[in-house]
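Action item from last meeting closed. Structure (137 res):
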């Protein structure tokens, strides 16, 4: 036969409402909660900003591509331009910052060979083809 179920009505009136250790336990829980609060807040912020918040784009959602997007975020943070944030492993741009980055002209670095030719012309010297990696017989 199973034991009868205990309900609040079946608890004798002489039973104390709370054990004597309850204040100490509650105090310890409060200390733990305060210690964990910043960690939990950061985790929540990361989740909200990980592409689920409509005003922010991460590098995987960006039309800039991941490398250019992350470079733009790092540059905007360095310059203090705003609209950029790193949250966990996500580089985030606001929609307006993203549009500004798309409108920004891309500067392409000249090929090293063109740099060498330009420097040679400036110095007045003639370049002689060498045995570089592309010229090995």
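Sequence:
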């Amino acid at each position: 036969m199973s034991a009868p179920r205990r309900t609040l009505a079946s608890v004798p009136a002489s039973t104390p409402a709370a054990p004597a250790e309850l204040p100490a336990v509650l105090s310890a829980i409060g200390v733990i909660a305060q210690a964990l609060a910043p960690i939990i807040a950061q985790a929540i912020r990361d989740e909200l900003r990980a592409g689920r918040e409509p005003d922010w784009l991460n590098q995987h959602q960006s039309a800039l591509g991941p490398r250019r997007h992350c470079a733009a975020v790092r540059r905007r943070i360095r310059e203090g331009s705003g609209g950029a944030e790193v949250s966990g492993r996500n580089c985030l741009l606001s929609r307006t910052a993203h549009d500004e980055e798309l409108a920004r002209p891309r500067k392409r670095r000249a090929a090293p060979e063109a740099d060498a030719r330009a420097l040679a012309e400036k110095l007045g010297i003639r370049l002689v083809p060498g045995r570089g990696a592309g010229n090995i017989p």
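Note appended to the action item: Residues 59 and 66 are 5 Å apart (CA to CA).
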